[in-house]
Specification:
With about 525 residues, the protein is an all-alpha fold. It is built from 19 helices and no strands. The longest helix is centred in the first third of the chain and has 39 residues. The two termini are about 15 Å apart. InterPro entries: Lipid_II_flippase_MurJ/MviN (IPR051050), MurJ (IPR004268).
């Protein structure tokens, strides 16, 4: 069997995703500084979420959940994988082109459905205007997702993982150029988004050609293989996109409160950093690896890959969760509080960060558990679980809003995330030992928990003893840096003492990969 290097793949995807998230933070810092929470930023968030929502459903979610396992198995068996990818490309291109056309025609309706609270004020018209410009981005990114799936299935992760960096480079450049020229900053930003999409598509297309797989535009053909892929993809749309649905429901509820959409968006960007670096990396690398191992009958290898990915997830998720719950205010203050982003905005966003932090392990575990189903081309089970989770999310978001106000969507999203994890765990029990963690994982899991809790205690003590330095002008940056260094040192020291972190073993795994 052609091996996918699990650990090197995880670190490659994680590195480029980290770079993308850091640049994404730079983008949001510039956005909040130049524009700030308010009508314009609310309208931009609502408009930009539309192509991202459909992209994650339509391409990265539904399409790749069906395409990657089927392509990986054909690649493993030398069954004309390139022809399969060519047919999939043509079908996806036709479907996305139709979607873009419908989106442009019904843009006001889409904005109303996802941000009904905007209707009747200036935010609605701005969101519709921005939506017309940014919505075509979905076409370029959906096609880029297919090429990324091809690259990931062949074990070439770098180009696909690096492509999102381009969007943030283009966006940061546009924001700075708009501010320096004295023009309309938001207009510069929305105009550059589809241009960045073209650049991302070009990068992964060229990388696919260099990998020896040539794909060219052509007429779509609904072959039996394509029909089967569509049948798998339709339920995967909801299963993979549950987080996006929950975000849209949250936006719908939050749009009733001015600035709330902006606050939740800023909080979302913060917790997406570890989710992107760890959770998305695990999902991208684990799915083709499991698919090919199951095709080859390597059940022990599949269990080992699942367990090692679980360790990787746990090691980086739990300390992030603790930090979000204990020091959300310093994090938000240092990252966003400048320009148009006030201390009031910091307090509101920090509350959302803490609530999302409770749900972070659940969002991570979903990325780990869903490939168990998708590698077996089972998208119906996660679909059913997602329906339950979305009902919980919508019920809590709308039900809690009269009681707790705009923070209700964050509470609902975290609760629904944990409900989804419980259902995935219960559903995976029927799959056999390859869907269960091995003894090494069980041996280390509680040690990771203990190290994270110990870090939390030290961080809690430090913030209460020296937190006053965060209030001094100019000192908050240094104070946060010290807090993070203390937290990291404590976590790695306790992890080493407890046996949760073994540096030599990790280096050996990377050398073998």
């Amino acid at each position: 069997m052609k091996q996918i290097r699990l650990f090197s793949g995880l670190f490659t995807v994680g590195f480029w995703t980290l770079a993308s998230r850091i640049l994404g933070f730079a983008r949001e810092i510039l956005l909040t500084a130049y524009i700030g929470p308010g009508p314009v930023m609310d309208a931009f968030v609502a408009a930009f979420r539309l192509p991202n929502m459909f992209r994650r459903f339509f391409a990265e979610g539904a399409f790749n959940a069906a395409f990657v396992p089927m392509f990986s198995k054909r690649l493993e068996a030398d069954e004309d994988a390139q022809g399969f990818a060519q047919n999939a490309f043509n079908l996806l291109a036709a479907a996305v082109l139709a979607l873009v056309g419908l989106g442009m025609v019904f843009m006001p309706g889409l904005v109303w459905l996802t941000a009904e609270g905007f209707y009747g004020d200036e935010r609605f018209d701005m969101a519709v205007d921005y939506g017309y410009v940014v919505f075509p981005y979905i076409m370029f990114m959906s096609l880029a997702a297919l090429f990324s799936g091809v690259l990931n299935a062949t074990g070439r992760f770098a180009a696909a993982a690096a492509a999102p960096v381009l969007l943030n480079i283009f966006a940061c450049t546009a924001l700075i150029a708009g501010a320096m020229s004295g023009g309309d900053v938001i207009r510069w930003l929305i105009t550059v988004i589809p241009i960045a999409g073209v650049a991302q598509l070009a990068l992964v297309w060229v990388a696919t050609e260099r990998a020896g797989i040539s794909i060219r535009p052509g007429w779509p053909r609904l072959t039996p293989e394509m029909r089967r892929m569509v049948r798998v993809a339709v339920p995967a749309a909801l299963a993979m996109g549950v987080t996006q649905v929950n975000l849209v429901v949250g936006q719908l509820v939050a749009s009733k409160t001015e600035k709330a959409v902006s606050w939740l968006f800023a909080a979302d960007r913060l917790y997406q950093l570890p989710l992107g670096v760890v959770g998305i990396a695990v999902g991208i690398v684990l799915l083709p690896d499991l698919s090919r191992r199951l095709r080859a009958g390597d059940k022990d290898g599949a269990r080992n890959a699942f367990s090692r990915a679980g360790e990787f997830t746990l090691l980086l998720t739990l300390p992030s969760t603790v930090a979000f719950m204990i020091i959300p205010n310093p994090l938000v203050s240092v990252l966003f509080e400048r320009g148009q982003f006030s201390a009031e905005d910091t307090a509101a966003t920090a509350l959302a960060v803490a609530v999302y932090g409770i749900g972070l392990p659940a969002f991570m575990l979903q990325k780990l558990l869903q490939p168990l189903f998708f590698a077996r081309e089972d998208t119906k089970s996660p679909f059913r679980y997602a329906v339950v989770a979305m009902i919980i999310n919508a019920g809590l978001a709308f039900g809690l809003y009269p009681l707790v106000g705009w923070i209700a969507p964050a509470i609902a999203a975290s609760t629904a995330g944990w409900a989804m994890v419980v259902l995935l765990v219960l559903g995976a029990r029927r799959m056999g030992d390859e869907a269960r963690f091995d003894d090494r994982f069980k041996h280390r899991a509680w040690r990771v928990v203990a190290a994270s809790l110990g870090m939390g205690v030290v961080l809690f003590a430090a913030i209460h003893l020296f937190g006053w330095t965060l209030e001094l002008p100019g000192w908050r940056y240094l104070a946060l840096l010290v807090l993070i260094k203390v937290a990291a040192a404590t976590y790695f020291f306790l992890g080493h003492i407890f046996g949760a972190i073994k540096i030599a073993e990790l280096k050996g795994a990377l050398r073998r990969s």
